[in-house]
Specification:
heterodimer; A: mainly beta; eleven-stranded antiparallel sheet; B: 767 residues; alpha+beta; six-stranded antiparallel sheet; 13 strands; elongated
């Protein structure tokens, strides 16, 4: 129907990751902090393995590695751990993993419980069903082509994170030893 | 004439007891089922005792239910339906252990102004070591890393993220649960488990409350299961155990009581072949029970289910005096009064020694056992009075010749011990007994572990293990008690203890500990934290960080007044906190995964006002102490029984009368050790009963030793069989404490009867 009403707009079918597949790519993060015009910018590569977790490997300006799994989150800088949080202590982290990996793997049904999911052409908007302290996200807007190309995370205090993805490709796996070890370490 | 008056007075007393029991029962019997309530609530330190009951109350009132379903929404709906149903029935109250968003906001608001004085253990360690670098890197990684949660406002006012670091290292109960749609949930192997936790409105060990909760829960669980096929429910809570325990105790009581009564009835009918002895024996037994119930309720206000179990079995003992009385129908007395006269001395002496035995128990410092002592003594006295005062008037039984089989049995028992031809056999038997006793002595072991004495429903225990695995917690009963002059002193002691516990945690000796000081440091510690923050973070470190991020940043200044424990408690954001404060300066430190108890105990040493409390171990020690004391009391009561026996039989005769019961007492635990039964506190209690029955048997044999009266043996054997029918059946109880009691009764009573004819060698000095 959409194709008939909007001739010339060919919507590519988004890629949905199958079990065992791994999505790799590059990212640029711009963090807009409330009250500052200048965005805090960082870039690097990422790895997404559905069911296992996400690794964000920042390269510029700092080598910050963030690993997010259902069990929690760990961050390190220059190889030294700076933060470790278990999902048990901060329940939102478990959801953070679901949200991020669900969104990036094209599995939006998994998010139905926590968010109202609104799809309009190539934009998907996620709004938490319940606003409370444990939910430090106001809304997530993603632009989707074959992959998720852009994500905008709006936070309650007026901050905003903008992520742009590029050079994405799916391989049937497996994870490298380093990647598997990074996931295992958050448990 | 005097007997007539006394008989009427006794009737008045019995009717009064009946009315008393009926009146109490009409309001519902005040039954207790906590086995531990029967045991002494002893602790030299009343504060420790108070802390224990405080902890026990917190634990026993808790109800945890996990609703599991493949569909998370179904699991949540089931948990909600269960909660609503239990709360609507007034059975469950909100435990308040999941703070709501508003309480968390209040908690954050209370902590925020004090962020310059609150340091997580790792941050404090870094600053003590003189480096701010790990803190600066944490901020950088939060700002430049993906998924950072620090916002601009926080970064400007708490650039080193001291407060988030403090908050995330707070020892909230370890748990794998995440909040989904307002319900704590966890998914595992395709099942979503939703936690429903609450506080029991009633008393976990009150029988009526248990039954109400059990019925309400069953109803709600059935409804939930119908609404969501495939639903699984796991339960954890003292009330479930108590209910299962009480149900099995009740089932046992009715079974043992029924078996004991039927056995006794059949026995009396077969032996006496007449209704009168049966009716009067049951009357005496019933009156004994009635008076025992009445006296127990009057003295203690409540009746323990274990006493009720005990009471049901008393039937077999209270009929002893009736059996002796009616055995005289075989002796050919002309007059009814002669029947009583002939056994009068034996009954009197037997009752006297029995009352001495229970009297010692009742006045001894064994508070819980007084109930059993009062119950037993009153039951026996009442049934004895019934025999003495009423039987000669009510007795319609005609004299009968002693059936030949019983005659042989009686004569055979006598000759077992004094037939000259059997001397060698007796010597051989004695030698064999000594060898077996020696073997038993080698194998004898004591068991005071209270956990093994209570019957825990295995299905519930499995559910508990599963819940603990799913939720990821394990809480033993151990804790520390901190007693200091004020809150500040208590918090400082907790911080000193905390340093030792941190070292123990690193070694894996303990998982986690929760002290008030970990939520609100002492004023002294807060001041020291603020000093470290000002010294290590202001100036260059914060300027460098601000430059790297590109934001204006200020290290917070400390508040003039320190954060107070009461402020944080009042927010409701840490539901466990009020439970850790007993009174001003009196705090508790709860432990998770207490692995190395010895080292944890050691950690308290040298810290003033800090005590390690291990209720289970203390109870075990207490059981051990009382097991020893029970043996001491037994010795005392045997000694106290000697004067009346010596008055009757002379010094040597009195001593000799004690030989059969003492031999039975000494042999019983040793023979049971041979089959692997440990000696417990409950076994020691049974020995007290064996002693009183055994002395009775010996006295009756001593009274009729001169003419080798087979009727006495028959009466004694009848008493033995009825006692074994009642108490001996307890050897098959589900509750190992009661089983231990029953086994000792079974063997002890049998041995007492076997040895009793030995006492026939003495002669009464007075008629």
């Amino acid at each position: 129907m959409a194709a008939l009403l909007l001739p010339g707009v060919a919507l590519a079918e988004p890629v949905t990751l199958k079990a065992g597949e791994v999505l790799r790519g590059r990212f640029v993060q711009e963090r807009f902090l409330a009250g500052f015009d200048q965005a805090v910018r960082s870039e690097g590569s990422f790895v997404l393995a559905p069911g296992q977790g996400l690794i964000w490997r920042g390269e510029k300006p700092f080598a910050v590695v963030t690993v997010i799994t259902p069990a929690g989150m760990a961050q390190s800088m220059g190889g030294k751990e700076t933060m470790r949080l278990s999902a048990a202590k901060v329940p939102f982290l478990a959801r953070l993993h679901d949200v991020m990996s669900g969104a990036m793997a094209g599995d939006f049904h998994a998010l139905d419980g926590e968010f109202t999911v609104n799809r309009e052409r190539d934009r998907i908007t996620l709004v938490p069903r319940r606003a409370d302290m444990a939910q430090p996200v106001k809304a997530i807007v993603a632009r989707i082509d074959r992959y998720v190309e852009e994500v905008d995370v709006q936070k309650p205090e007026g901050d905003r994170d903008h992520l742009t993805f590029s050079a994405q490709n799916v391989t049937p796996g497996p994870l490298t030893a380093d990647e598997a070890a990074a996931f295992a370490a958050t448990r | 004439m005097i007997r007539k008056i006394l008989a009427v007075l006794w009737l008045v007393a019995v009717v009064a007891a009946g009315l008393h029991v009926a009146r109490v029962a009409s309001h519902g019997m005040p039954l207790e089922s906590d086995l531990l309530a029967l045991l002494p609530a002893e602790d030299r330190d009343p504060l420790v005792q108070q802390a224990k009951s405080h902890m026990a109350e917190q634990v026993s009132g808790r109800v945890v239910i996990l609703a599991g379903h493949a569909d998370p929404a179904q699991a949540r709906r089931a948990a909600e339906a269960l909660r609503d149903s239990l709360m609507a029935d007034g059975l469950l109250a909100d435990a308040g252990d999941v703070p709501d968003a508003e309480a968390l906001r209040r908690l954050g608001a209370a902590y925020y102004p004090h962020r310059a004085s609150l340091l997580s253990p790792a941050d404090r360690e870094a600053l003590l070591a003189g480096t701010a670098e790990p803190l600066a890197q944490r901020t950088l990684s939060q700002v430049f890393g993906v998924g950072g949660m620090a916002n601009a406002k926080l970064l400007a006012n708490d650039p080193f993220l001291l407060l988030p670091s403090f908050l995330t290292t707070l020892p909230v109960p370890a748990s794998r649960l995440a909040m989904v749609d307002g319900w704590p949930s966890v998914s595992e192997d395709g099942t979503t488990w939703v936690l429903l936790s609450g506080r029991l409105r009633g008393h976990a060990y009150g029988l009526a409350d248990q039954q109400a909760f059990g019925a309400g829960y069953d109803k709600a669980a059935r409804a939930a299961a119908e609404a969501a096929p495939g639903l699984r429910l796991l339960r954890l809570g003292a009330v479930f155990y108590a209910q299962a325990g009480a149900a099995s105790a009740m089932a046992e009581t009715s079974f043992i009581g029924t078996a004991s009564t039927i056995g006794t009835v059949v026995l009396i009918l077969v032996v006496f072949r007449s209704l009168s002895p049966l009716i009067l024996s049951l009357l005496a037994g019933g009156i004994g029970l009635l008076c025992a119930f009445s006296a127990t309720l009057a003295v203690f206000g409540t009746l323990h289910t274990s006493t009720a179990v005990f009471g049901a079995t008393m039937v077999g003992v209270t009929v002893d005096y009736s059996l002796h009385y009616f055995s005289r129908v075989f002796a050919g007395h002309a007059d009814r009064a002669d029947r009583l006269r002939h056994i009068g001395t034996g009954v009197g002496l037997g009752l006297l020694t029995t009352v001495i035995g229970y009297g010692v128990l009742a006045v001894a410092p064994l508070p819980g056992l007084r109930q059993v002592a009062v119950f037993s003594a009153l039951g026996l006295i009442a049934s004895c009075l019934t025999v003495v005062l009423w039987f000669p008037s009510l007795d319609r039984a005609a004299d009968r010749p002693l059936p030949r089989a019983l005659g042989w049995l009686g004569a055979g028992f006598w000759s077992l011990w004094d037939n000259p031809a059997g001397r060698n056999a007796r010597r051989l038997g004695l030698a064999l007994t000594v060898v077996l006793a020696g073997l038993g002595l080698v194998m004898l072991r004591v068991d005071d572990d209270v956990r093994r004495q209570q019957a825990l429903d295995p299905a519930l225990a499995a559910e508990q293990a599963q819940i603990q695995r799913i939720l990821g917690f394990s809480q033993g009963g151990q804790f520390y008690l901190i007693a200091a002059r004020d809150t500040e002193a208590a918090l400082q002691q907790e911080e000193r203890l905390g340093e030792r516990l941190a070292a123990l945690r690193a070694d894996g000796a303990v998982g986690e500990w929760r002290s008030p000081a970990r939520f609100v440091p002492s004023a002294e510690r807060q001041a020291d934290n603020a000093r470290l923050v000002q010294a290590q973070l202001t100036g260059a470190p914060v300027a460098e960080l601000a430059a790297a991020v590109g934001l204006g940043m200020t290290v917070p200044a400390p508040e003039p007044e320190p954060l107070r424990l009461a402020q944080v408690s009042a927010t409701g954001g840490v539901p466990l906190l009020p439970g850790l404060v007993l009174a001003e300066g009196v705090h508790l430190v709860a432990l998770d995964h207490a692995v190395d108890v010895a080292r944890l105990r050691q950690a308290a040493s040298g810290l003033e006002g800090v005590t390690f409390v291990d209720p289970v171990a203390d109870m075990g020690r207490l059981l051990g102490t009382y097991r020893e004391r029970a043996i001491g009391l037994l010795a005392v009561s045997l000694l106290l029984m000697l004067p009346p026996l010596m008055w009757r039989y002379g010094v040597r005769g009195g001593l000799w009368t004690m030989v059969p019961p003492v031999a039975a007492l000494a042999l019983t635990p040793l023979l049971l050790a041979l089959i692997g039964l440990p000696f417990t506190f409950f076994a020691a209690m049974a020995l007290v009963l064996v002693a009183s029955a055994g002395v009775d048997y010996a006295v009756f044999c001593a009274e009729s030793g001169a003419d080798r009266d087979p009727v006495t043996i028959v009466a004694t054997l009848l008493a033995t069989v009825t006692t074994i029918l009642s108490f001996g059946l307890l050897a098959f109880s589900e509750v190992s404490g009661i089983r231990s009691f029953g086994a000792v009764m079974l063997v002890g009573i049998a041995l007492s009867a076997l040895f009793a004819p030995l006492a026939g060698r003495v002669r009464p000095r007075r008629a």
